[in-house]
Specification:
single chain; 212 residues; alpha+beta; Arc Repressor Mutant, subunit A; 2 domains; four-stranded antiparallel sheet
């Protein structure tokens, strides 16, 4: 009986009746460290709920399967939303889920998800909460992968402009900078503020000035 695992605060939104129903519909499975829970490119038959241990979710390169990118970790009380993709036509797994440590899961058959949602409205809230966390983690990953690189590009752009004009600053608008860098004004504003907080540049009404 897996009911005692639902004492975790992550399950707080679920009613006792819903928890009991899940334990009757799902199967408890223990995965050794390093074993696959869900595999890239394959069809998933179940939605895993982490009960014990942790799992890591990775994106595998289509061109080189030996290359992988860590997307996020799953801990007790969390689900892997991507498993739901297998409910769609040709919905094979876009990611791999691997046990980071010895991991125990409650695997809910995908065929049971719609009936569960219809019977227990709180299940949808629980699912959406998990989706939101995963989406926010992916956005953070995008920030690291793109914005940090763009910050370096923006700084090089300002330095180049200063060098070309033999000045210590540029008077171009943020809209113009954004256009030439292929991004948005909002992103440029954010990056300029970050560079200013680091003491690299200074902004005033006349433009952007290099410090030092």
């Amino acid at each position: 009986m897996a009911l005692h695992y639902f004492d975790n605060n992550e399950f707080g939104v679920l009613s006792q009746e819903c928890k009991e129903h899940l334990t009757t519909k799902g199967n408890v499975v223990e995965y050794p460290k390093g074993s696959l829970i869900l595999d890239y490119g394959l069809h998933a038959d179940f939605m895993p709920i982490i009960l014990e241990g942790s799992a890591r979710v990775m994106r595998i390169s289509k061109d080189d399967p030996s290359k992988e990118l860590l997307l996020y970790f799953l801990t007790p009380g969390e689900i892997c939303p991507c498993a739901a993709f297998s409910q769609l036509p040709d919905g094979n797994m876009p990611i791999t889920v691997e046990a980071e440590s010895t991991c125990k899961t409650l695997n809910i058959p995908l065929a049971e998800l719609n009936p569960i949602t219809k019977s227990f409205s709180e299940w949808r809230i629980y699912e959406l909460g998990n989706f939101r966390r995963r989406f926010e983690e992916l956005l953070s990953l995008v920030d690291d992968a793109i914005f940090n690189q763009l910050e370096a590009r923006l700084l090089a752009y300002i330095e180049k402009r200063c060098l070309l004009n033999n000045r210590h600053g540029v008077s171009l608008s943020k809209v113009k900078m954004a256009s030439e860098l292929g991004t948005s004004r909002e992103v440029v504003s954010r990056l300029l503020k970050n560079l200013e907080s680091k003491g690299v540049i200074k902004q005033d009404k006349t433009g952007v000035h290099m410090q030092g």
